[in-house]
Specification:
The chain has 375 residues and is α/β, with parallel strands linked by helices. Helix content is 33%, strand content 18%. About 9% of the residues have low confidence.
């Protein structure tokens, strides 16, 4: 299933469409979004080097880790990056995000390097956007050749800028003609729900990590579990949601396992796990959609207006051609005075008898559509 995400990022979008974008969500109980990002980074780099990707370059924007961390990771995966590499550029927003360092310390790669660009003052998102596009064009030029963009953490970016500005930056990157694909990671426990929803709206794919044994007592126990040696820590379910054309959504799930070599994915082992994964994706509502036994019994006792209330007896509808007492005896008309006297003497309610003027006067229908009403 993770391979499906990689293929979407590798192939990119069609010409004239927005670039596909991925949000990788993690929580305190399952903080492995960085491992997923490194997995995609390694596979996308290999695909670019092999010429199997629509993008011919990769711009890596680092916020949560130093550039040397990612270069060392790629080296461990057999992907050697040198200063002469023309397929990758690293935009360093980790070393000096606020622009406080006048002189970089020894060993820090400065802005003069062609591989790593030191970017200061990350709160200026217009300048950051220009730096990303400029780094990409250094690899592929100004033509129709495209490049991919990877942002290791949006959390650090949201610390220095507002949510509307960050959303505008990501949208501008997706709509740029030379950006082939884009992905970033987000810790949902650090932000409000509206921030998470906004980033999900921008992205075309969403991946979230869920531990096998989530805590039922809230985040306090989840934080404690981080410092406890547990046999299931580093294992869980990896859920993927794809936004398809015409508003359709496809959800896929698999298991993940994190070890010293990185993150590994495998199919879900049982039907029960599939059911649990599906239930976890259903949005929570604040009302109950099911009836209790007592509510069901009370509902069955309610008599609706269109139901007969004669306890099984048939109901005869008077049609104006015969009396209700005797269907064979023709009713005789009464004058208004006789009718009034009869009502007073009997002490009972009156009865209005209708006679047709002729046989040509047909009713609207031979069958009354309201025969079943007992009003």
């Amino acid at each position: 299933m993770a391979d499906s995400i990689f293929r979407k990022l590798r192939d990119g979008g069609e010409e004239g469409e927005l670039a596909p974008a991925l949000t990788i969500e993690e929580t305190v109980a399952s903080p492995f979004a960085l491992d997923v990002s490194c997995y995609l980074l390694a596979n996308l780099s290999s695909s670019i080097l092999a010429g199997k990707s629509k993008s011919e370059g990769l711009v890596l924007v680092t916020f949560s880790r130093s550039p040397s961390f990612y270069l060392q990771f790629l080296k461990q995966k057999g992907i050697f990056v040198s200063s002469s590499s023309k397929w990758i550029r690293v935009l360093d927003c980790y070393t000096d995000p606020l622009g406080w360092i006048d002189q970089p310390s020894p060993g820090v790669i400065t802005e003069g390097s062609s591989l790593i660009k030191l970017h200061k003052c990350v709160s200026d998102l217009k300048r950051l956007f220009s730096s990303i596009i400029e780094a990409g064009r250094e690899m592929v030029g100004d033509g129709k050749t495209r490049f991919s963009v990877a942002i290791d953490s949006v959390n650090e970016l949201l610390r220095h800028s507002s949510m509307p500005l960050v959303s505008g930056l990501l949208t501008d990157l997706r709509s740029h003609a030379q950006v082939s694909s884009l992905f970033w990671s987000l810790n949902t426990d650090l932000h409000q729900e509206k921030v998470t929803n906004a980033l999900e709206y921008i992205s075309t794919m969403k991946a979230n990590l869920e531990p096998f044994c989530p805590s039922s007592d809230g985040k306090r126990n989840a934080l404690e579990n981080l410092f406890l040696v547990h046999q299931d820590f580093g294992k869980g379910r990896f859920h993927i949601r794809f936004k398809l054309r015409k508003g359709r959504v496809r959800v896929m799930s698999e298991e993940y396992h994190v070890d010293q070599t990185g993150i590994n994915f495998s199919p879900i082992s049982s039907v029960e796990t599939i059911i649990a994964a599906t239930k976890s994706l259903i949005p929570k509502v604040h009302f109950n959609l099911q009836l209790s036994e007592k509510e069901r019994v009370e509902k069955e006792k309610v008599v609706l207006p269109f139901e007969h209330q004669d306890h099984g007896k048939s109901t005869e509808i008077y049609d104006g051609r015969r009396t209700l007492a005797d269907g064979k005896t023709e009713a005789t008309p009464l004058s208004s005075g006789e009718l009034q006297a009869d009502v007073v003497s009997s002490g009972k309610g009156g009865e209005i008898i209708y006679f047709r003027d002729s046989d040509d006067e047909h009713p609207d229908s031979d069958e009354d559509p309201d025969d079943d009403l007992d009003i």
